[in-house]
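Board notes (copied after class):
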Amino acid sequence: MRTPVQSRSEGSTARMVAATIELLHEGGLQAVTIAAVAQRYGGSNGSIYHRFGDRTGLLMAAQEDVLTRIEHAAAAAFSAAEQEPDDDRAVQMLAEAALAVFAEHRGAMRAFFIQSRNATDGELFAARIVRTNHQLADTVTGWLSARFGTSDADAEATWRILFAIGASQAVFDDQDLSARSTSESELSDALARAVSAVARRA
């Protein structure tokens, strides 16, 4: 049974991580300083150093939180799709879920997938990102193979299509991609058709 002190400590840690993620969404890696996080969550610089050691430790905890949430969201989406008897609807559900996940974690993904590569401690973040990418790739390709009998090559291509479109939504603002705009529903519909065309081709 957790003591009140343990609960308060865990709650403080969670608030520090949440404050870090908020700052990542608002301004990227450069927005995250120990002082900014302390001010955001309403605590002291010392309490952050005590729990995470330094800024890198804090960012790695935030990355772990974000990527774990993405993994759980993906697992939930595939579980729901597996229960859907209609193949077209199942693919549509997954397309919508993929875009939603990238949109929800847009700022953090931009920070960890792009900005961290140019940081002096960027290699510390890379391994965890690769682990998540590989896990998602295995989930997508395995589901396509089991559901549609998709070949390994086509399943891999389908995963890369999903990732590329989702990542572009995370990395770029809509007006940076094209002078024309597209709604989320239009994009998810088109993505579902693209996935079906590759994954279910004869």
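Comment from the instructor: The mean pLDDT is 89. Residues 157 and 198 are 8 Å apart (CA to CA).
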